[in-house]
Structure formats: C-alpha cells, structure tokens
Amino acid sequence: MRIHHLALRVSDCARSAAFYSDLLGLQEVRRSVEDGGIRAIWLQTGDTVLMLEEELRGGGPDSGSGHLLAFAVDDLPSWERRLESGGIAVVDRTPHTLYASDPDGHRVGLTVFGTLAH
Fold first, then answer.
1. Residues 6+ away with beta carbon under 8 Å from 45
2. Of 55, 57, 32, which Cα lies nearest the Cα of 43?
3. How much is the pTM?
4. Contact 110, 97 (CB under 8 A)
5. Element containing residue 59 per DSSP (H, E)
6. Residue 58 CB burial class (10 angstroms; 0-12, 13-18, ≥19)
7. Which strand ranges, in their side-by-side order, compose the sheet holding 48-53?
8. Are 51 and 5 in contact (CB under 8 A)?
9. Which of 44, 67, 78, 97 could staple 111 via S-S, CB 3.0–4.6 A?
10. Cα separation, 21 vs 106, whole angstroms
C-alpha cells in the first residue's frame, strides 16, 4: 500500500503552484483548464502526486484544514533561508521540523526527522 495522491482545496491554483513549485521545487505534471481558468494543477513529489484543486469531491470544510503536509528535506537552515527569501514565515519549529503555511493556510512541514543518523 502506498499513497497515490494528496489533494488540497485551494482558492487560486496558480498562486498555490507558485508556493509548491517555484519555492519548494515540486515539478508540475498536469494542468486542467476549464472555461479559460485553471481548475487544477498537479505536482510530482516522489512517488506521490500533490493535486491543487479549486473544487474537491466529497465532504469537508470549505477552506484550509488542520492537517499537515510534511516534506522530507536534507537540512533545515538552507530551507529556512529559502522560505525567508520567498517571503514565507516559519510559524513554528521543533529541532527537526520547520512549519509554514501555504497561501490557503494549509500547514506545511519541512522535516529532517527520520533522515538523521541516530
């Protein structure tokens, strides 16, 4: 069993893609356009696809969530500088993880936990 994809409801696909693609470095693999507007942008993250969607099927809150999307990284200081240069604040941290928010308020973690030699 593996995760196939993760879908996030976003208010502006292009703005969210700028965060995940331009700042975090995920590669765009698909873009869905309807009536001249972007409806969805899919990004590759390892073996999983991150789907940024204006509308999600099924129930749930109308915006954002209390969930965390965490990415494994090699070191925190360079990522903290990268976030800062992109105008993104680190809103919390542990010795192993930096926490920030994407443009829609979804919590995003950048973590070295599990990649450290113990």
1. 26, 71
2. 32
3. 0.80
4. yes
5. none
6. exposed
7. 5-9, 48-53, 37-45, 27-34
8. yes
9. 97
10. 15
**What would the two tokens of residue 71 be?**
């990415």
Asked if residue 69 lies in contact with residue 25, where contact means CB atoms within 8 angstroms, the answer is: no
pLDDT digits (tens, 9 = 90+) for 43-95: 999 989 999 998 876 666 677 666 788 899 999 999 999 999 999 999 999 99
DSSP 8-state class, residue 54:
S
Structure tokens at 42: 């899919």
The helix/strand/coil state of 78 is helix
Q: Please state whether 108 falls in left (phi above 0), alpha (psi between -120 and 50) or beta.
A: beta
Nearest of 14, 5, 42, 34 to residue 102 by alpha carbon? 14
Q: Which two tokens stand for residue 24?
A: 């975090």
